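Hi R.,

As promised on Friday, here is the backbone we talked about, encoded as structure tokens. Could you run it through your design pipeline when you get a chance and send me back a sequence?
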């Protein structure tokens, strides 16, 4: 019963529509009506600029981090395989909440930042490595989609060959994450291959109107 309540709470935490709240309360628009139509950090960067995008990305990451931390309220032994499994489930619940937020008509983002926050909470060194890959690719290319894909593919590589995580569930989660991110970014991959993918304005304040 307690675990079920924690899962529901993790979903509700993930459902906090950061991009929608920022765009509506501060900029007077609904971010889902501009750019790609996604209520996530990528579209916020693209439409509202780096300041708003950075804030949304940070809060969305913290949603995943906080959801995993709810595992501390369970009675499972800390650092056991069952505890790790619960952390993964809570993190996934938060990611689903971000993608299908109950507070925003179930129209959210792709959940990449929340996924990073989840990994940060479970295994900080892995998350820092992934963020390093993401930031490097972002500043190199200014493509958030490509940066996310590269970081996600790096995830199972780190788990299997660098950090050698013992939990089978964590290894399966890493592989599933990489595949899911690639699949959910298939349109972005097509645009990258044709040279039509939008770059984020890292140093511009805001740009409202264009739909990609």
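Update: got your reply. Pasting your designed sequence below so it's all in one thread:
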């Amino acid at each position: 019963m307690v675990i079920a309540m924690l899962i529901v709470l993790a979903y509700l935490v993930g459902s906090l529509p950061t991009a929608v709240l920022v765009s509506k309360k501060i900029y007077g628009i609904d971010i889902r009506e501009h750019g790609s139509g996604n209520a996530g950090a990528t579209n916020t960067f693209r439409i509202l600029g780096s300041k708003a995008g950075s804030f949304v990305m940070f809060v969305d990451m913290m949603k995943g981090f906080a959801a995993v931390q709810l595992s501390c309220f369970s009675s499972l032994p800390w650092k056991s395989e069952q505890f790790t499994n619960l952390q993964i489930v809570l993190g996934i619940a938060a990611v689903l909440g971000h993608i299908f937020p109950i507070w925003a008509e179930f129209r959210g983002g792709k959940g990449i930042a929340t996924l990073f926050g989840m990994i940060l909470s479970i295994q900080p060194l892995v998350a820092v490595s992934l963020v390093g890959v993401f930031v490097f690719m972002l500043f190199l290319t200014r493509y958030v989609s490509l940066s996310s894909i590269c970081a996600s593919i790096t995830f199972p590589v780190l788990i299997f060959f660098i950090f050698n995580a013992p939990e089978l569930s964590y290894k399966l989660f890493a592989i599933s994450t990489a595949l899911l991110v690639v699949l959910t970014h298939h349109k972005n991959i097509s645009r990258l291959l044709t040279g039509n993918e939008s770059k984020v304005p890292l140093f511009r304040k805001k740009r409202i109107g264009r739909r990609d």
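One thing I noticed while checking it: Residues 50-69 form the longest helix (20 residues).

Thanks again,
M.
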